[in-house]
Design brief:
The complex is a heterodimer. Chain A is built from 13 helices and 2 strands; from the N terminus they run αααββαααααααααα. By secondary structure, chain A is mainly alpha-helical. Chain B is mainly α. Chain B has 11 helices and no strands. The chains are: A mainly alpha, B mainly alpha.
């Protein structure tokens, strides 16, 4: 990796300015390289345009509600009062449930894939888990709505309600659709990415680390816990945050199982909304400037949060993989 | 670490327990996939028939009816997205790998990664603002633009990665023959990276074929079949969503049949990608 990258960079500037190529070829070369530059700038323009357009379209809502948009919890198209709190709460709550379920399963699966699986099984098992990421969100939502939601309602919610009903999270009637179902669906959708990225991070741990622990008489688990996991901690945290970024922005599957009710409640059994599901279900009917603006402001908040989360995750994962490159 | 017998037994059991739990976790992840896939394929196949492929949607209550128009619509949208995204993504990838200075490349690469992480519903809202609103109509074109926007960073990054893997000796050999640099790129370097580029494009196609959220406010869906690029258009994932949320059993069943078709399509492409990239490695 490292050597290839360096040589490419070394040779590129020299050749781009090569005077020995004839004038005509220099001209056609310049046209070609400038064309590639223009098309690369499309990416930059799309991103900058996205921010500008979102801010501009959200302006009616931003100027009218100001900061209260985030703290207000009504969404009333008749009186034209819009507040994002229930959507933000629902997004965070469902993503949190998703992470709580996905993290142990993903890390266990990654440990299995790197440290335990026999060689012949590693490739196919990785591939199967990655296939889960390829299933379109609308199909996971369909399965969630018709297969998972009935199971969540009875027995899961009924059992939780009767055994842990003293906690505020597990009170209220079991609907099936709601935060809990959305969280489980999100967990299913982020398991592949957390597994794949943390698997790569664990693979980057040099074997000397493992051998040293074994030489001290550690069991395999002690080796993993005291040598592998600390060494790739930032990569694993990065993997989890990448999963969080995916969960926050997920739209279709969540819209299908969360029940789309706009309220603020502690009960996980209750139907709710996320930012993405609110946009998906309301944007088509929004007519006035303020209602469109409020939905675009929701989109802007979602964009800002996922941007932040992705940048943090990339920094962590990049640090881990650059350690690997340095070791090679 | 005490060498006492009791301590050792405890450590051995902790070891077994934790490794067992890891294996169960891996098994669970695979089981979930098997459950979703198995259910979708078996359940979907039972409602899947020739009418589904050849007939247009019929009102609730009438027998038969299918998603011919939506299947056709999805093919058009995927084609449209690819036509827009392919030149942009490929040339941007060439720029990143062959021409950009390291600093510019890292900025563009970072922005491409950010763009790839933008939630697809936000892409839908953005394309609504820049295409649908100025043209005063939902359209196939706007949906193609939205899908292209999701494809571009994927294609650009995979093209860049595979172009970088072309050994420099090939670049030097081509230039030593006296051809210009751009002809070396087109005639030697791109063919050398072709497998990787095709893999990236297929990955991008697999991803957008099932995308639904960006189509909600761009393609919209259509009861009248395909009427051209400037009119609303139906799409398979969009119809699956609408029919899944429908109160009618017959429409729910059509949603399952559609899901079966979509899963076969998307997983087929994914397996093909895997096969192509494996062959490259050997």
């Amino acid at each position: 990796m490292a050597t290839k990258r360096n040589t490419t960079n070394m040779i590129t500037p020299g050749l781009a300015n090569n005077r020995r190529l004839g004038r005509r070829s220099g001209f056609s070369d310049r046209i070609f390289s400038n064309t590639t530059l223009v098309f690369a700038m499309v990416i930059v323009a799309l991103l900058i345009g996205l921010v500008i357009i979102l801010v501009k379209d959200a302006m009616p809502a931003i100027s009218r509600f100001g900061f209260s948009f985030i703290t207000n919890s009504t969404w009333d198209p008749v009186k034209e009062i819009y507040g994002a709190l229930p959507a933000i709460y629902g997004t965070l709550l469902s993503s949190l449930i998703g992470l709580l379920i996905a993290i142990p399963i993903s890390l266990g699966a990654a440990i299995f894939l790197v440290e335990l699986a026999p060689k012949w099984l590693k490739g196919p098992a990785s591939f199967i888990i990655e296939m889960l990421a390829a299933i379109p969100s609308v199909i996971i939502g369909l399965w969630g709505l018709f297969v998972l939601v009935p199971i969540v309602k009875n027995p899961i919610e009924i059992w939780l309600g009767s055994h842990l009903g003293s906690l505020p999270f597990f009170q209220g009637p079991p609907f099936g659709v709601g935060f809990l179902a959305a969280g489980i669906i999100l967990a299913i959708m982020i398991i592949p990415i957390i597994t794949a990225v943390s698997r790569d991070a664990m693979r980057a741990v040099p074997n000397e680390q493992r051998e040293a622990m074994f030489a001290l008489g550690a069991t395999r688990w002690e080796m993993i816990r005291q040598s592998v996991l600390p060494y790739c901690r930032s990569g694993i945290i990065g993997a989890i945050i990448l999963g969080l970024g995916r969960a926050l922005g997920e739209t279709m599957a969540v819209t299908m199982v969360i029940g789309n009710s706009y309220k603020l409640t502690a009960s996980l059994f209750s139907p709710g909304s996320t930012i993405a599901s609110t946009i998906a279900s309301q944007f088509g009917e929004a007519a006035t400037g303020v209602s469109v603006g409020s939905l675009v402001e929701l989109a802007l908040i979602l964009f800002g949060v996922t941007l932040l989360v992705n940048v943090i995750a990339r920094a962590l994962v990049w640090r881990m993989t650059s350690v690997k490159v340095a070791k090679e | 670490m005490k060498a006492t017998n009791r301590g050792y037994t405890r450590r051995k059991w902790v070891n077994r327990l934790m490794l067992g739990l890891s294996s169960i976790a891996a098994g669970l992840a695979i089981l979930i996939l098997a459950l979703i896939l198995g259910y979708t394929i078996i359940h979907g196949l039972s409602y899947f028939n020739l009418n589904f492929l050849t007939q247009a949607a019929k009102p609730v209550g009438e027998a038969g009816g299918g998603m011919r128009n939506e299947i056709f619509g999805t093919l058009i949208l995927v084609g449209l997205g690819s036509i827009i995204a392919l030149p942009i993504g490929l040339l941007a990838g060439i720029f990143l790998s062959e021409y950009a200075s390291p600093r510019v490349a890292s900025v563009v690469r970072f922005m491409a990664d950010i763009l790839a992480g933008v939630p697809s519903i936000v892409v839908g809202v953005f394309v609504y603002a820049i295409v649908v609103r100025p043209m005063h109509s939902y359209s196939a074109l706007s949906a193609g633009v939205a899908l292209a926007m999701i494809m571009i960073p994927v294609i650009a990054r995979t093209a860049e990665e595979s172009l970088r893997l072309v050994p420099n000796s090939m670049r030097e050999a081509a230039l030593a023959l006296g051809i210009t640099r751009w002809r070396a790129v087109i005639g030697v370097i791109i063919p050398g990276a072709m497998t990787g580029i095709i893999t990236g494009v297929m990955l991008a196609v697999a991803r957008i074929a099932g995308e639904t959220a960006p189509l909600l406010f761009t393609a919209l869906g259509s009861q009248f079949g395909v009427q051209g690029l400037l009119k609303p258009i139906g799409a398979l994932p969009l119809q699956i969503f609408r029919y899944a949320m429908s109160p009618y059993k017959s429409e729910n069943q059509q949603a399952w049949a559609g899901a079966f078709l979509l899963v076969i399509l998307v997983l087929g492409i994914s397996i093909l990608v895997r096969w192509v990239s494996n062959r490259k490695r050997i």
